Amino acid sequence: MKTVIIIPARYASVRFPGKPLVKLSVGDGLQKSLIQLSWEAACRVKNVEMIFVATDDERIRVEAESFGARVIMTPKECKNGTERCAEAIKNINFVGDIVVNFQGDAPLTPEWFVEDLIQAFEKNSNTQMATPVLRLDDRSLKEFKLDRKSGRVGGTTVVSDNNSNALYFSKEIIPYFDEKRIEQKENCPVFHHVGIYAYRPETLLNYNLWKESNLEVLEGLEQLRFLENGNSIKCVLVDSKGRLFWELNNPGDVIRIEKAIKENQKKRKKNEST
Q: What count of other Cβ atoms lies within 10 Å of the Cβ of residue 237?
């Protein structure tokens, strides 16, 4: 399948202005921008035709081109990454099978998360949109709870039906459950929504034809516009394979992600040596 990856990036983030350009320590005294680390993660995905950074900001364009990324300039009026991806594929007149919206604030994203999404389209020609979900382990659930207790907007959770189609996404921890009745470490009922999307091009282009939806605005979650307009989102269960995963949502996440980058590097080197 002909696949293109779009990495939407904007400077004027409400919670973290200038987020794509923030520098993160990657070990050995080196630092890289968040957008570069996300682009490098996207480059590890197999069987992709093209990768672009989509932005409306000259500072991000200059940074992206400095490390070799191809850039598509998009309107400042784009309200979220999905709108920006839709504008981007219109600009390049993309003709293909799948468009992947690869978040510019998720440099810890393993390549197989995206590859599993592509396989979901290959297995079912009726799939119009898909997104990865990750069952929380005890450590991740504690991080989610800490964010909510501290009043920070952290990761997104999702509940789905028996056919793995999303019912709802929320910044709250859903579903509610009595921890005393469940062994969290093995059977935690909470699934982390990994902010990557794969769409058929026509499904993505429809997005900009709809008005912002009520729940989308309330939750601050762009994917809810699809659900409120009657579109199914296939939830693809992925395996972290021991890799740490977290998005950079707040300034406080920088230290958390830097630590995870170093831990993941150690695991990658260990796997390569065996």
A: 12
Domain ranges of the chain: 3-273
* CATH code of the domain occupying 3-273: 3.90.550.10
pLDDT digits (tens, 9 = 90+) for 204-216: 999 999 999 999 9
CA 37 to chain centre: 13
| Encoded tokens for 267 | 């695991």
Question: What DSSP element (H or E) covers 7?
Answer: strand 3-9
Provide φ and ψ at 154, rounded to 5°: -105, -140
Separation between Cα atoms, residue 177 and residue 190, nearest integer Å:
9
What b/e sequence results for 122-145 when a residue is b if at least 16 CB atoms lie within 10 Å of its CB, and e otherwise? eeeeebbbbbbbbbbeeebbeebe
Q: Is the peptide bond before 175 cis (omega within 30 degrees of 0)?
A: yes
Contact 220, 153 (CB under 8 A): yes
Question: 170: which strand partners?
Answer: 157
Answer for the pair 109, 196: CB distance below 8 angstroms, yes or no.
yes
Q: What is the pLDDT of residues 59-71, one digit of tens each?
A: 999 999 999 999 9
The structure's pTM equals 0.90
Cα–Cα–Cα angle for 130, 224, 107, rounded to 5 degrees:
55
